[in-house]
Amino acid sequence: MIKFALIKERKTPPDRRVVFSPKKLQEIVQKFPEASFKIEASDIRIFKDSEYEEAGFEVSQDISDCEVLLGVKEVPIASLIPNKKYFFFSHTIKKQPYNRELLEAILKNNIDLYDYEVIVKTNGRRLIGFGRYAGLVGAYNCFRALGLRDGIFEMPKVDILPDLKSVLLELDKIKLPNIKIVLTGSGKVAHGAKEILDHLKIKQVGVEEYLNNDFNEPVYCLIDVLDYNVHKSGTNITNKHFYSHPEEYNSNFMRFAEVSHVFIAGHFYGDGAPIFFTQEQANSPKFKIKLVADVSCDIGIPIASTIRSSTIADPIYGYDPKTGEEVDFREKSAITVMAVDNLPCELPKDASKGFGDMFMKHVIPAFFNLDIDGILERAKMTENGKLAERFSYLQNYVDGKE
Ligand SMILES: NC(=O)c1ccc[n+]([C@@H]2O[C@H](COP(=O)([O-])OP(=O)(O)OC[C@H]3O[C@@H](n4cnc5c(N)ncnc54)[C@H](O)[C@@H]3O)[C@@H](O)[C@H]2O)c1
Predict the structure, then answer these.
(1) Phi/psi class of residue 101: alpha, beta or left (left: φ > 0; alpha: ψ in -120 to 50)?
(2) ipTM score of the complex?
(3) So what's the pLDDT on residue 339?
(4) Where does the pLDDT of residue 300 fall: very low under 50, low under 70, confident under 90, or very high at 90 and above?
(5) Which of 314, 330, 346 is the last residue of a domain?
(6) If you average pLDDT over residues 134-138, what whole number do you get?
(7) Is the CB of 315 inside a 6 Å radius of any atom of ligand 1?
(8) Do the Cβ atoms of 54 and 62 come closer than 8 Å?
(9) Which CATH number fits the domain that encloses residue 84?
(10) What range does the domain containing 103 cover?
(11) How far apart are CA 109 and CA 104, in angstroms?
(12) Residue owning the nearest CA to atom 17 of ligand 1
């Protein structure tokens, strides 16, 4: 028998998401009778404690008898229970300075940490994440910002809507002007954003058509790394080559910036990759983009206008390309920016359900099939108070030496 617990989220601002809904848990225990689940009491979770109890699960303040603890966001150091297996987004794999002490505490407390970001296939492709919901909410927020800025329509904020269905109903009420939208990426975020564009029946066009033609309807173009970067030799190789040698490429994004009104950023930006546009480029008379919905949300470097992340409470700001400073998003000279970095939190019920489906499909079986596909092995960052081999590159970071 493996005893799992759904732990309470303790980060501020409160995160209402959870790994499994009560219904999903019922499905799991039916399929895997050797799994049991206890729920740590929480007054902020999107599903109430009483809903788990009604589904037949024990809710308690004490989950210390459980072996595998499942959370979403970082667990505060003071709340870590030693000698457990934890699953959560630790935000340490890129050596994020603000979580160095957390990883150090995880090692000191002999915790086995499994991070959702490294639950991957053998080819390294991620299996689990909230990306789709970030893309869905990010694209919705993009049109909400457009409506507010240009005074052409008003849309409610997603976090006051109950679910995705209501979000789609709100989109049905708007009419877009004849804009050109460029959407970057090829993963879950980009595809989530694409779902919204397709729901709005915006026409998708190919790169050449997008760059060269005018349209009498709104259109979008979905572009990937070799569309917006070009190898220094002038001949592009493969996406894989770009991922491993980004420094051999130059940005080719300006050709899109010169014809697009809106940029929805849904790509993954790897270290050393060419930047999308600089302040200087944003200042050039040819630069046309006036709204950036930056779901990728890498601050400061790749997209000059993303000078900070924004919040669900206050999602939109303006960027003045002349000064590089923040201004009111309604100012004529401004590029409007939406850069909320916790977008899936705006849709906690759907995001939790979707996440639970993926976790059930890709991870739960691994606990009961001796991990034949190596899913758990690859995702295990720490064991016996040490970093796993795959994560030994984090040693200097944990030791405070970089
Ligand atoms: N704002 C938010 O709330 C929010 C939420 C979730 C994700 N995100 C961010 O959105 C971005 C995309 O996330 P996702 O869920 O779509 O990721 P994903 O893992 O689903 O997709 C990433 C894509 O990028 C490609 N890729 C892999 N390595 C790359 C590299 N070195 N350079 C360029 N591309 C590479 C992959 O092949 C894949 O197609 C990430 O930066 C993520 O942090 C933001």
Answers:
(1) alpha
(2) 0.98
(3) 98
(4) confident
(5) 346
(6) 98
(7) no
(8) no
(9) 3.40.50.720
(10) 2-128+348-398
(11) 9
(12) 187
Whether 236 shows a pLDDT value over 80: the answer reads: no
The reported pTM is 0.92
Q: Is 245 a catalytic residue?
A: no
Q: How many domains does the chain have?
A: 2
- What lies within 8 Å, CB to CB, of 370 at 6+ separation is none
336 is in an annotated binding site: no
Residue of the nearest CA to atom 5 in ligand 1? 134
Q: Tell me the C-alpha distance between 75 and 62, whole Å.
A: 16
- Claim to verify: residue 338 and residue 355 sit in the same structural domain: no
- Residue 39 is predicted with a pLDDT of 98
Among 308, 325, 346, give the residue marking a domain's end.
Answer: 346
Q: What is the mean pLDDT of residues 161-174?
A: 97
Q: Specify the pLDDT at position 402.
A: 78
**Residue 190 shares a structural domain with residue 103:** no
Q: Is 401 a catalytic residue?
A: no
How confident is the model over 113-122, as a mean pLDDT? 97
Which residue, by CA, sits nearest to atom 8 of ligand 1?
296
Atom of ligand 1 lying closest to residue 132 CA: 15
Q: Is 131 in the pocket of ligand 1 (CB under 6 A)?
A: yes
Examine the domain organization and report whether 360 and 380 are in the same domain: yes
pLDDT for residue 214: 96
The alpha-carbon radius of gyration of the chain (Å, integer) is 22
∠ CA 270-312-274, rounded to 5°: 20
Query: Which pLDDT band, with edges at 50, 70 and 90, does 68 fall under?
Result: very high
State the catalytic residue, choosing from 8, 24, 38, 73.
73
Any ligand 1 atom below 6 A from CB of 186: yes
Top mutation candidate among 117, 189, 337 for ligand 1, by most atoms within 8 Å of CB = 189
Q: Is 278 annotated as a binding residue?
A: no
In the chain, how long is the greatest CA-to-CA distance?
Answer: 66
